Each structure stands twice: as structure tokens, then as C-alpha cells.
Amino acid sequence: MNIIHFMSMAQNRAARFHGVGKPMTLEDLPMAGGEGALVRVEAAGLCGTDLHIAVEGTMTTAFLPITLGHEIAGVVEEGAGEFRPGDRVCVYPHVPCFSCEYCRSDREALCRASRIFGVQRDGGFARYIRLPDSCLFRLPDVVPFEVGAALTDAVSTAYHAVRRRAEVRAGESVAVFGCGALGTFAIKILARLAPSAILGVDVQPSALERAKRAGATAAVNARDTEAAKEVRRLTGGGADVAFEFIGSAKTVKEAVRSVRPGGRVVVVGIGSEPVELTSLRVFVGNEVTLMGSMGLSRQDLRDVIEWAGEGRLSLEGDIEVRPLAEINEVLREAAGGERKAAKFVLKP
């Protein structure tokens, strides 16, 4: 078991990342000054990005050491703009420029000047965080902080892929490759859109069980069967839409093979492997649409907050809350893959 090292007492305790293969350390840091709002963090979600950085080393941060964590919900301590002390908030994970063509067209995740919490600036695995009030969104009283943290990326990213990129319509059949947090939340969103079928595809039994609880009409164990072939069988010729939430060359290829002629494939998972899909004759001849889906827009976050506040989206049973002091154990468990809850959320 990794041991977290406790530093001298100060105002703001944060989990700091010093490099791949090194344990995260709890350190007491000076309270950040400057402009913007000061938020007391009540919950911070663990994302696949944190695993890519801290465990796999496939993503890098702008500097070291750094406080990871970009899925943040909490209470305003020092107000800014329209926000006052005591306001319940969740945080848009990017600080975009607001002036480029992407920001002006509600595609802030593509802003080249954007700085992501926990990647290009200190994040939310801490007791407090200071940030621009433009990143703050009001969190309804009925939405728990741990749910609010998940909404800021995991849920919003799935929503963006389903509603904005794929534009899934009622009556369509859908295959979801990868039923971790993003895949599970995508299935929950899809279930609200009256599809003809939702097929959850994974190799982990716990993930397949999560998929069925979330609303999948069938679960495909890719360890025991050829996933694309089984999807085509279950949908009578192929899914209308396939989502890939893993970032693996193999599963991207399977997703492409699983759709019917005219089908759409949306890749959300991020990986470094080169992808060989199929022959151009098959790809072009079947008019398959292949697209990427990156992150979320501010409007996506507004939408999922509204859904959660109105009770249209419940994450009950999908989140496991752990103390921030267990960050190293949680990272190890999350990297292991087999777990009951879809998502870990840390509380300082």
C-alpha cells in the first residue's frame, strides 16, 4: 500500500502529483490569492485523465508538482461576479479564452488557449481552489455535491457525445463499447431518448451489470464473444450508432464493424495507439460516419445540471465516495478496472 506523506499544517491541504510511479502526497499549501472566487471543495471526481497522468504516464501536465482533479463541486467562500459566499456550485473544468471561433460557437473544449484544472493549472483534489467566476455554475440544493462533481465532466462528456455529436434519435439502436463511468452515464442518457435497443459491451462482469442497471437492453461480454458480430446479430444487421469510451485501437475497430450501412461511430476514449479500421471499399461503400467527441461545452453542463435538478437523471448507486486521504488506494483500484460503482469521488 502506498503511504501518503503528511506535510506541515497550513491553510489549504491538497493531494500533489510529483511524477508517474510516485505516490501522491497530501501537502499543506499557502492559500491562493488573487482575483476570482474561492471555493471550498466538497467533492472532486476521479477521471480517466487523472489515471492517464498519474498511473499510465500517457498524458503530461504543464508543471510539477501539481494538484490534480478537474471534476469539482463545492461552496463559495469568497465571492466574485454574481456569486456570493454560501452559494452551492460546480465547476466547468476548462478556463477558455472566450474570444476564439470555438468559444464563440459553444465548442470551448476545442479552444487552443484553454487551461484545464489539474492539467495546465492546479485542480480540485484540495480543500480550497481559487478560480475565475466564469467557471462557476449554480448547483441546485437537491443535487448532492458528489453528483455535482460527476456532472462537470463524466456526465457532461457522455451527454456531449450522445446529444451533440451522434444526435441519437428515438427508435435507433445503439452499442456502447466500454461501460465504465462514461459508458454507464451515456447509457443512462440514452435510456431517456427511447432507442430501440442499447447494447452494453465490456469485458468486466461488474461493468456489464452496471450497464444493465443503467438501462441497457442487453449486455455483450467481449471476452467471450466477437463483440461486433454479436452486436450485428442482436440488432438485425448492425447498430445505428456505436460509441467507443475506452480509447483502444481494437475496440474502435470493433465499433466500426458493429454498425449497419449508414451507421455512425463516435469515439470518445483517448489513447495513443494508431488505428487501422477497415478497407476503404467497405468504409466508403457503407457510408459509415466516424467522428471524435471531445469533452463538453458550457451548454452541455447547463443541460445536465438541469436534468439532475429536475430528477430526470439519477446517479444513485453509481458513485463511491472516498476520503481524499485514500487517493493512492483509489487510483490503484480505479486502474484495476473491476469495481462495483461506476465512479470514484473524493472528499477533502
Q: What order do the helices and strands come in, and which of them pair?
A:
Layout: E1 12-17, E2 25-29, E3 37-45, H1 48-56, E4 66-67, E5 71-78, E6 88-91, E7 94-95, H2 101-104, E8 115-116, E9 128-131, E10 136-138, H3 145-165, E11 173-177, H4 181-191, E12 197-202, H5 205-214, E13 218-221, H6 227-235, E14 239-244, H7 249-258, E15 259-267, H8 280-285, E16 289-292, H9 298-309, E17 319-323, H10 327-336, E18 343-347
Parallel strand pairs: 11-12, 11-14, 12-13, 14-15, 15-16, 17-18
Antiparallel strand pairs: 1-2, 1-4, 3-5, 3-9, 3-18, 5-6, 6-10, 7-8
Helix pairs in contact: 1-10, 3-4, 3-9, 4-5, 6-7
Mean pLDDT: 94
Structural class: alpha/beta
Helix content: 25-40%
Second rung of CATH, namely the architecture of the largest domain: Alpha-Beta Complex
Number of domains: 2
- Characterize the overall form: globular
The total of beta strands comes to: 18
The ordered H/E elements are: EEEHEEEEHEEEHEHEHEHEHEHEHEHE
- The total count of helices amounts to 10
Q: How large is the share of residues in beta strands?
A: 25-35%
Regions with pLDDT < 50 over 5+ consecutive residues? 1-10
Task: Look up the CATH topology of the largest domain.
Answer: Quinone Oxidoreductase, Chain A, domain 1
Largest sheet: 7 strands, mixed
Under CATH at level 1, the class of the largest domain stands as: Alpha Beta
What would you give as the CATH superfamily of the largest domain? Medium-chain alcohol dehydrogenases, catalytic domain
Task: Report the span from N to C terminus.
Answer: 20 Å
**How big is the Rg?**
20 Å
